[in-house]
Design brief:
The complex is a heterodimer of chains A (about 270) and B (about 400).
Chain A: H1 3-12, E1 17-23, H2 29-41, E2 46-50, H3 61-72, H4 77-88, E3 94-97, H5 100-106, H6 108-118, E4 122-124, H7 134-142, E5 146-148, E6 150-151, H8 157-166, E7 171-174, H9 189-200, E8 205-208, H10 214-221, E9 226-229, H11 231-238, H12 243-263
Parallel strand pairs in A: 1-2, 1-9, 2-3, 3-4, 4-5, 6-7, 7-8, 8-9
Chain B: E1 15-16, E2 19-23, H1 29-44, H2 46-59, E3 66-68, H3 70-76, E4 79-84, H4 94-107, E5 112-117, H5 121-132, E6 136-142, H6 143-148, H7 150-158, E7 162-166, H8 173-187, E8 191-193, H9 204-212, H10 214-227, E9 233-237, H11 242-248, E10 258-266, H12 277-280, E11 282-286, E12 288-293, H13 318-326, E13 329-335, H14 336-350, H15 356-376, E14 381-386, H16 394-400
Classes of the chains: A alpha/beta (about 270), B alpha/beta (about 400).
Function (chain B): The beta subunit is responsible for the synthesis of L-tryptophan from indole and L-serine.
Pathway (chain B): Amino-acid biosynthesis; L-tryptophan biosynthesis; L-tryptophan from chorismate: step 5/5
Pfam families (chain B): PALP
Chain lengths: ~270, ~400
Amino acid sequence: MGLTEVFEKARAEGRAVSVGCMPAGFPTVDGSIAAMVAMAEAGIDAIEVELPYSDPVMDGPVIQRASEIALAGGVRTKDTLRAIEAVAGTGVPVVLMTYWNPIERYGVDAFARDLAAAGGTGLITPDLIPDEAHEWLAASDAHQLDRTFLVSPSSTDERLAMTVAHCRGFVYATAVMGVTGARDQTSVAAPALVSRVRAATDLPVGVGLGVRDGAQAAEVGSFADGVIVGSALVRCVLEAPDEAAGLASLRALSADLARGVRAVTR
Amino acid sequence: MNASAAGLLPDVSGHFGRYGGRFVPEALIAALDQLDAAYRHATADEAFQAEFGRLLRDYAGLPSLLYRADRFSAAAGARIFLKREDLNHTGAHKVRNVLGQALLTKRMGKKRVIAETGAGQHGVATATAAALMDLECVVYMGEVDTERQALNVARMRMLGATVVPVRTGSRTLKDAINEALRDWVSTVDDTHYLLGTAAGPHPFPGMVRDFVRGIGVEARQQILDQTGALPDAVAACVGGGSNAIGIFHAFVGDEGVRLYGFEGGGEGVSTDRHSARFSGGSPGVLHGARTYVLQDEDGQTIESYSISAGLDYPSVGPEHAWLHDTGRATYLPVTDAEAMDAFQLLCRTEGIIPAIESAHGLGGALAVAPTLAEELGREPTIIVNLSGRGDKDVETAGSYFRILG
């Protein structure tokens, strides 16, 4: 099932989609595949794979650490594509979140081609704004990939309209002014941002940055179409004494998040 | 006159040809737009320019001298003039940039500045400007650097700044910039990121260049006054590139003046221990701009190395990438050994202890002087930007020359 179909199905059910993130190659390539498959099996609707990068300026300490571990383990761009292919092969939609330089280095069109071949639905680009994205706009059109740019509480109405006009698939609303990482409270700015996005587009709106459990997922799911959870899931693996314990903890949190988005109907 | 000399670059979206731009999270765009607008207004505001000029003159001690270094020249086989930015308050050209940006911070009504620092020079300069203008100051510094530059950490704290050791990644300058960007994403409403070099996302490269371009404007007039002619070459070290663009910019339109940027060659470009983005890197995106970066085949940043902390950086300002590709400036690596030879030569011939960064400019001038002399059929005249003084490097140099204890 594609990501768009997942959003449509959830919308028909009156609930939000849960999106779970994991860096490819963390703790190993196979380990990350197992983790993402476990998340999907436990009820997460869609997977956001993060391509590990040496300088992840939008990420907080948890995802930074996981990316460092992946890179120290020798993960390559091709391994990320392999992970996407393996996870997408189980039937769950997989979108890739990546900083821009690795894509530019790979070759934007070549990467789009290989991502499409691996079954990825598109890219979330935290440090690529539409203003700089000419090559990606062309490549994503050529290979029929979704493109998710970020909008922020600080985006002006003009920029927000321009940004969502360049999105396809869904829009990523950053709920707080800050980097990734679980927080005790989700942002008060998020509902306002989501309604601003809705005024500008019919695309589904995913909200990320700060969600750590089912209760928060329910809260965010009450006003957003997608609840994006990263650091809290990564921490399950990062802090586990061994792989089995990590997977067990990951399944438990994934199930909690899946229940969370179903706890509120809209 | 080409586009840069005519003041046309960067373009309105911050590009120098294919370089520059804004590769940053959307959350920062509003702040970058605000900064761009504030800077444009300030540029046109005579009161701002007068205040900036007054601070440069009365507080920082500018214009800096242009000094004909006769004994060093004799050894170089070239007539060498030194632009004495080492004599500025805080000991380097960087004071020009921090005063300009701190004034802008006040103008934008922001109360807090953050900065990254490698060796600590930009951190000290920022802490200085923050003290002068009553701004809260937080400086991010790689943990490795806080250990090897403990004196500068103490200086920043004396000036009232908070120094935050950065423990992620390679724990050096590159990671300090990452951490400063992360801070800024969260605090952009009341905080200005006082970036230390002519790099990063638009408007920083063009704005920082304009704050430091007085180096070249002064030097151009001074050399005309002293020799009645333009120099054959202008040379500077290139880390992020602010001292180099600062002295180059006024000469870009002077076609007969060769521009040389000298990068940290470390242990040699053929080794994996250098900071030579032009000879050993390739075009890519890092820290908000498209430029030349040290990267592997997957686009992961490769850690740089140089004996000079100020040159030890895997990226470079985008205007240099453009000057490189257009052929207007030439960028060459200078190894640790070449730089330290030049360091010692300047100490012994002129009684001036240069910053090790600036010693790369001197070493490069020594290296190109013979070729230039042959090409011109006479002794060449070269201005070297002595961008900083060597007090901060006494321990590194003392250990290199084995003269400590």
